[in-house]
Please model this.
Amino acid sequence: MLIKGILSFPALFTPKLAQGATEPKFSAVVLIQPTDPIVAQLQAEVDQAKQNTFPSGYTGSDECFGAYDVKYAGKDYYDPRFSGWYVFSCSAKAEDRPEVVDVNYNKIIDPGSVYSGMVAYVNANISGYVKGRGGIGGWLNGVMITDEAPPMGRLDNKPSVEQMFASVAPPVPTPTAPMAPPVPTPAAPPTAPPTPSVATLQMTTAAGGATYESMIAAGWTDDTLVAQGMAIRPSFA
Model:
């Protein structure tokens, strides 16, 4: 059965030992508005479980579903805001941990993100048991936490971050000094063009018409030009 309501006393990540119990269990309580159609369905499931388990008449001492005012009457955690509501409780053995997911089916692993007061869907079964005096139990399978805002706020009375630190003035931001613009790197002075070579030799016909400048550019030197008969030294050089 799928039950939607306000989650209370969730023990979904670590099994806990309830008062009077002999073994730790995972558990959850769902608070349900009296106008919710699920109330009638839950009561019908409980009545059917009683008939199946106690055909001679119900003699159990515990039921997983009932009126909030009856179940929590006189308790120090009784909350008058839920007067007239109904309560469904369910549990799972320590070796049968329930699934806990968000509305996108992502598994929730942070226990601090699940607290009393959240709106949740709880999947559970209802059946009778005869251990001790017997009763009608709710057996927890899994919980889906919704994105709905808790209508009654946190039921564990734990304050929000804003409430805890409301008296602390927010820090004054330190002004950041403006960054100086980068100093431009001065451009390198233009490189003077190379001084053209000045012919100091007179080319001969052996050079085949090549000029002195072209021969020098090709790697020849004055000495090699003269030695190979490509040029002669003028008498004024």
